[in-house]
């Protein structure tokens, strides 16, 4: 497609899907062939010197098949190796021309195709989905002006202020190099050693110690572009912008104990959840929001807009919702699409530009560089998932795995022999021009003093948490540091917590047997010539607000029960009516009901019907469900004798989930729980009671009186 052809994006057309279709094959009804297209007669026996003889080198069919297999792996991503992706569309609610000339942010009739990939950061490709970690949230917009990538995370700040520290951060969190453990975990000495020496990391650490780091679902997390970017309008005027993704499924986290158990029971928990939601037509949606700051207000805030360890509280600059992304199609092939997709924060379209955030500036180098080795050369933009919709017309040629066949003798610019083609595009023709920022500076290896308030924003974050969210943060610090073997590292972190919140430092210190001490915090970087370190110390600045409700997850719950997974525990003799009516009613509200019984196969209901079973107690676990329901009947007499059924209910309760029964089913609840007269336990068998509890997601106050399970 030639640049500027708008039509393919309108009237429901999806030019990316069409483009991918040209590369898609389906083996249905086809003969088996070699890579050269030769039909194969026998794919089960190699060519031998006699039926019991040695295999012949001549066997090109065997050689080709094994050679391909031998080379099927490519290097995994150095970070964000474990990920899941999906196709979708982005629709704009209102034109943003006042701020940006980007076409996909101006024309509300256009549906821009997107591919999104969500990932953990630290773990390898085969690691658990539910590690305590930041999640990547990367979206590729296939716009009519070329690819625009918004490569963000599910947390709005980052660990470090300068890209030069990134390799150290990642080396510290990855498995330790001599022993190659722990996998997908930050709870170890090298990570906390680094953090204890890096006061700027504290804000992000607070986010990773919160439930944001253990999302219930990839569909239930917010996304953030983190850095401040620029919007540029037709007149060339610049506004600073921060990007937000707000999920319409609500925001929810897991319990930490639950997350650890899920890692054993179903380490594909998030991947499967995303796949199944899309497969069943429950398409996840996020609204895109922007926080806009006028150019002249650059220095108006008590923090530096260029500092990626800071966010702009929504209470200070509201988020304006401008459009919606819907993920509506699972990939056809994980490797070809999710594994080979190559994101880059430097893939821009006219109307969007960078700021001088030193973390962003370093990222602009890293992505293509790593992709050249990961995807095997400089032509990875030709891989179908990475191809832009506008045709690529330039003078780049050759390189490994080149697929484009450029005709003609001219591969340079300027030229006359090729009629001057391809032409440079002027501004009016959509040619990209960088924002003309005036720079008058001394070359210096240093950081701005405006970056040194490392403690006011983590304090704001902690202050903004509800009591259960605070408790989870206290427990997460205590868990992570409890796994650290070197006591002085623990002590340094506890000392740093003292700079942020005294009560938190004392609680965590108490759990570790340590007393927080007020000591000078470490400094990083070069020592100034005059030896005066004073101004290099981190400090806790003043913020105009003490709390920001927008930072808490507590009021971001969904107002429906769509895609919630509910386990029905049954056995022979289950009351037909109580069982099938409730199942139907919940499914009508788009919840997902799974029937679990002592054994696979069928159970006989009270009316003698045969009810098929989805899973047995052997294969199912409460941790992968959102709620439990026990319909009554003779089945309950069997279940109260079944240790797995009792454990199932108790574990769901321990993780603060809604647990329900009808009046005849409550015997099992009474057997499993010490107290059934608490919020989130209903025995009425009424749909509205169960639905109200499921909407609340969790009853975290139960953690104050934990039960064994
Ligand atoms: Fe990345 N990051 N990153 N990162 N990043 C990569 O690129 C890097 C950072 C993010 O699903 C790599 O193709 C540096 C912040 C996501 O394919 C690599 C720095 C944010 C993904 C890389 C950062 C991100 C990556 C590894 C510090 C949030 C997964 C493979 C200067 C705003 C994209 C690859 C996907 C991937 C470098 C920091 C988000 C090595 C040097 C901050 C979502 O190029």
Note the topology.
Elements: H1 15-21, H2 60-70, E1 83-92, E2 111-120, E3 135-143, E4 146-153, H3 166-173, H4 189-196, H5 202-208, E5 223-224, E6 229-232, E7 238-247, H6 256-265, H7 269-279, E8 285-294, E9 320-329, H8 334-339, E10 352-353, H9 358-374, H10 456-463, H11 467-482, H12 487-500, H13 502-512, E11 565-569, H14 576-588, E12 592-597, E13 602-604, E14 610-612, E15 615-616, E16 627-630, H15 635-639, H16 643-654, E17 659-661, H17 666-672, E18 681-682, H18 687-696
Parallel strand pairs: 11-12, 11-16, 12-15, 16-17, 17-18
Antiparallel strand pairs: 1-2, 1-9, 2-3, 3-4, 5-7, 6-7, 6-10, 7-8, 8-9, 13-14
Helix pairs in contact: 3-4, 4-12, 5-10, 11-13, 12-13, 16-17
Bound molecules: CIS-heme D hydroxychlorin gamma-spirolactone 17R, 18S.
Question: How would you sum up this structure in a few lines?
Answer:
The chain contains 18 helices and 18 strands. The protein has 709 residues and is α/β, with parallel strands linked by helices. The longest helix is centred in the middle third of the chain and has 17 residues.
What's the rounded overall pLDDT mean?
A: 96
Question: How much helical structure, as a percent, in the residues?
Answer: 25-40%
Please summarize the sheet with the most strands: 10 strands, antiparallel
Count the DSSP helices: 18
Between the first and last Cα atoms, what is the distance in angstroms? 60 Å
Find the count of extended strands (DSSP E, 2+ residues).
Answer: 18
**Hetero compounds:** CIS-heme D hydroxychlorin gamma-spirolactone 17R, 18S
Cross-link (3'-histidyl-3-tyrosine (His-Tyr)): 344-367
Protein name: Catalase
InterPro entries: Catalase (IPR018028), Catalase_AS (IPR024708), Catalase_clade2 (IPR024712), Catalase_clade2_helical (IPR043156), Catalase_core (IPR011614), Catalase_haem_BS (IPR002226), Catalase_immune_responsive (IPR010582), Catalase_large_C (IPR041399)
Keywords: Heme, Hydrogen peroxide, Iron, Metal-binding, Oxidoreductase, Peroxidase
